[in-house]
Structures are given as structure tokens and as C-alpha cells.
Write a structure and sequence with these properties.
about 350 residues; alpha/beta; 4-stranded antiparallel sheet; about 20% helix; about 35% strand; elongated; binds S-adenosylmethionine
């Protein structure tokens, strides 16, 4: 836009800019112009500024771009009351954005989808996340913006996984946990990754290369085929033996190993009696469960009693992420004693 300015030699630009700022005479919504060895500072009005500050001129100035929003909700021109129900957080899986919206926003979900699509730089499609269901923990998603399907490649801890958010379980909220377990593995350990899904634990372990044998087991054929597709893209992928089977079929024939991961938070407990015999003395179990916050301290005792055989020591217990207003996904790590 056209407006008044103050033309000053570049060498005096900063000094005059400060003076104008202090006098509230600088227009901060317009860009400073460069003219050879001079700068033209946009000013509020043709004020009678001291002549030694610079030469009064009239110029075309470009606007300063408004700062990028730091929150997707800033992209929605809604009343504060309407915004009150908008969730603050959302998940990003590859180029897919997933958000859980309350029923009060059902009629405005497409607007939220568009806001997220423009806010998340890599977003291709936005899905309303309707939660995971059934024994295979498949996610129900409904497209609210963007195009294409639910298959993507997700980057995590320097790895790229094949993921289909609708056909096989995957949560980006477990990234630190995958890394944490992989870091614990000692050279030569044999590992079972039970209920492996698309294989994030196994893939991390295989990439690190210390485990001597990794067996990844899942009953969902689509999870298994996604894991196999990722496996095929890495030279070290062959370090994982992928088994498509229910754990109840796999465990009775399984030999002992030094580490077992069992991430089936709502039902895993029922498999613990048959998991326990597969853990060698001094071997460890990483067991995941959704635990009411009030039971965090005492829950380990209940898990040990479900292991039935062997003596167990709780060596670690931590919250992986909040699950609901009153519960968390909790990781319990037990070690089997020598006897
Ligand atoms: C919560 S997901 C965990 C996936 C993976 N461990 C991860 O961290 O991303 C649970 C997985 O257990 C599998 N599952 C459920 N019941 C099973 C069973 N009886 N035997 C084998 N896998 C099972 C599901 O198919 C699903 O992939």
C-alpha cells in the first residue's frame, strides 16, 4: 500500500528505526524498503519529525505477513464458545492426521478437517478417529478432509514403517516406548514380540542388531503383511522371523527366550499364564496395560499373580501415555529370578 516513509542512509537505519518505535511512529504492518544505499521506513503519518531523522517521502510498501498460527484452532474463525469443544491435540501418522472430535462438533467436522489439512505441513488426508475395535484393535476412521486412502509410510526413530491406520493397529504415541525397549536389549538376546502389529518394536530391535533372534507374532494378516513389506525394504529386515498366528497357538510350542514384549493392553492379561514359561531365568517381560490411575501403585501384584509360574521382580513401571481422564497406558517390566 502507498504511504508516508522516512528515507535514511542504511548506516543510520537501526538508530532511526528505534527512534520511530519509541515515538510510536513506525508502521510494523508494512515492510521496510531497500533503495540502494538507503532504507525507507514506513511511518504512521506525515508527522513533523525532526529533519535530521531522515527525508520525508511517499512510497508503495509491501505488507508484513501475519505470523503463522501455532495452533490449528487459530485457523478456525469460530466464537470462543464454539472453540471450547475443539481438542487441542491430534495424531500424525505419515501424511495422515487423526483427530477425535466430540459429538457436539459432528456438524462442523469438515471445517476442522480443512483447518488441520492447511495447518499440518505434510497432511494429505484428515480422519475423524472413532477408536480401535475388536481383538485386532483396528481403527475406525472417517475421512473429514483431503484425499486418498489410509495406507502411508510413517517415520519414527529414523525408521520408516508401512502403516494402514484402518487395517492394522499403529499408534505414533508409542515412539519413545519402542526406543526405550530396544535400548534395553543386550547382545545375543532372543526376543518374542507378541501381538507385534506392524512391528515397530521388532523393527527397532532388528535395526539395532544386538538381538540374536527376533520372533514377531500377530494374528492380523494385514498387520503381518505390512510388517513384511517394511522388512523387505531394509537389509537387516531378515533378522525378524514373522509369524502369522494367534499367540495361543504360538506359545505352547515356543522355547524360552530372554525377553518378551506383550502389548495387548485390554486382553493381554489372559495370555500371561502361557507367556511365563517362555521366559528364561533372568529374562524380562515388558507387559502393557491400561491401568486406572488410582491402581498404578498396587497393580503389579495382580499382574504377577497372573504369571502363575516363576518368581518375578518388578524392575520398572512407567506411564507410556494418558489413555483417558482417569487411566494411563502403563508399561510393567518384570524379571524372572534364577530359580
Ligand atoms: C495394541 S496392538 C499392538 C501392536 C504393536 N505391538 C505396537 O506396539 O504397535 C495389539 C495387536 O495384537 C494383535 N492381536 C490381538 N489378539 C491377538 C492374538 N490372540 N494373537 C496374536 N495377535 C493378537 C492385534 O492384531 C494387534 O495388532
Amino acid at each position: 500500500m502507498k504511504g508516508p516513509g522516512l528515507r535514511v542512509p542504511r548506516s543510520r537505519g537501526e538508530e532511526v528505526r528505534r527512534r520511530l518505535l519509541a515515538a510510536a511512529e513506525l508502521r510494523r504492518d508494512l515492510q521496510i524498503l531497500k533503495e540502494g544505499e538507503f532504507l525507507v521506513l514506513p511511518i504512521v503519518r506525515e508527522a513533523s519529525l525532526p529533519a535530521e531523522w531522515g527525508e520525508a517521502v511517499f512510497r508503495e510498501f509491501a505488507s508484513v505477513a501475519p505470523p503463522a498460527p501455532t495452533d490449528y484452532r487459530e485457523r478456525l474463525e469460530w466464537t470462543p464458545e464454539a472453540k471450547a469443544d475443539l481438542p487441542r491435540s491430534f495424531d500424525i501418522v505419515g501424511d495422515i492426521v487423526l483427530i477425535r472430535l466430540p459429538s457436539s462438533l459432528e456438524s462442523r467436522k469438515e471445517e476442522v478437517g480443512q483447518a488441520l489439512l492447511s495447518f499440518v505441513p505434510a497432511a494429505r488426508i484428515v480422519g475423524q478417529d472413532r477408536g480401535v475395535h475388536g481383538p485386532e484393535r483396528r481403527r475406525q476412521v472417517e475421512r473429514i478432509a483431503g484425499t486418498g486412502g489410509w495406507h502411508t509410510r510413517h517415520r519414527e526413530n529414523g525408521l520408516e514403517f508401512e502403516v494402514d491406520v484402518e487395517r492394522a493397529y499403529f499408534s505414533p504415541r508409542l515412539a519413545r516406548e519402542h526406543e526405550r525397549v530396544a535400548a534395553e536389549v543386550q547382545r545375543g538376546e532372543r526376543v518374542y514380540d507378541l501381538c507385534c502389529g506392524v512391528g515397530p518394536f521388532s523393527l527397532m530391535l532388528a535395526r539395532d542388531g544386538r538381538a540374536s533372534h527376533i520372533t514377531a507374532v500377530d494374528s492380523n494378516p494385514e498387520a503381518v503383511s505390512l510388517l513384511r513389506a517394511t522388512q523387505a525394504r531394509y537389509a537387516w529386515g531378515s533378522r525378524i522371523e514373522v509369524v502369522e498366528a494367534p499367540v495361543e497357538q504360538f506359545l505352547p510350542h515356543a522355547g524360552a527366550v530372554e525377553r518378551v514384549i506383550l502389548n495387548l493392553p485390554h486382553e493381554g492379561i489372559k495370555y500371561l499364564p502361557s507367556v511365563a514359561p517362555t521366559i528364561a531365568p533372568r529374562g524380562r517381560l515388558h507387559y502393557y496395560e491400561v491401568t486406572p490411575r488410582v491402581e498404578f501403585e498396587r497393580r503389579a501384584e495382580g499382574v504377577v499373580s497372573a504369571l502363575v509360574t516363576g518368581d518375578w521382580t518388578l524392575v520398572d513401571r512407567h506411564v507410556v501415555h494418558p489413555y483417558s481422564p482417569t487411566s494411563d497406558l502403563v508399561a510393567f517390566v518384570f524379571e524372572r529370578s534364577e530359580r
